[in-house]
Design a protein that fits this description.
Layout: E1 7-15, H1 26-36, E2 38-47, H2 58-72, E3 78-81, H3 92-105, E4 109-112, H4 122-157
Helix pairs in contact: 3-4
């Protein structure tokens, strides 16, 4: 029997807060999969903090290691993301390039549903990813600056204001606190 070869893909869905839902990416991913005739071999859907010095939390790190191992075993040849920042949050250009190289070494490509430029030749892809990673890092830094400025402004206006969880609130995990 001849025909179109089956292209196995893996899905990577990630949201960084409890207020977001990875399922919001499903419709676009499903449409892209159907259009390209992919078969879904694996799926990772995470809800884990992006902070952790820009490298994601423990669930993200464990899933990323598992994904790279599955790619190495040949379980899929395409890693499909809704958007590049869903897998390289806060890592900047070098982090994006490192991941793309790790996938290439395992015989896989990274494909973004919303960023069609990501499917360029490896040389052009490296340049574009470098720029996109740098822009994402700059935006993340600006967002952090705006949040810090807002907290400082609010604290100045209300001396009783305490940022973060309120005293006595149950924390889901131990967090590093500022002095």
């Amino acid at each position: 029997m001849s025909g179109t070869p089956v292209i196995r893909c893996a899905l990577w869905k990630w949201v960084s807060t409890d207020h977001q839902d990875a399922e919001n990416q499903d419709a676009d991913l499903a449409q892209f999969i159907a259009h390209h005739g992919y078969t879904v071999a694996r799926e990772w859907a995470l809800s884990d903090s992006a902070w952790k010095n820009g490298t994601g939390g423990p669930a993200y790190q464990a899933a990323r290691r598992e994904m790279l191992e599955a790619a190495h075993k040949g379980e899929f040849s395409v890693l499909l993301v809704w958007k590049l920042d869903r897998i390289i949050r806060g890592e900047g250009a070098e982090g994006a390039l490192r991941l793309i190289r790790q996938l290439r070494e395992r015989g896989c490509i990274l494909v973004s549903v919303t960023e069609t430029w990501l499917t360029a030749s490896p040389e052009v892809q490296d340049i574009l990813v470098s720029f996109a990673g740098w822009m994402a890092k700059m935006e993340s830094d600006k967002r952090s600056e705006r949040i810090r400025a807002g907290l400082v402004r609010k604290a100045a206006a209300d001396p009783s204001f305490r940022p973060g969880r309120q005293p006595g609130a149950k924390d889901k995990c131990q967090r590093k606190r500022s002095p």
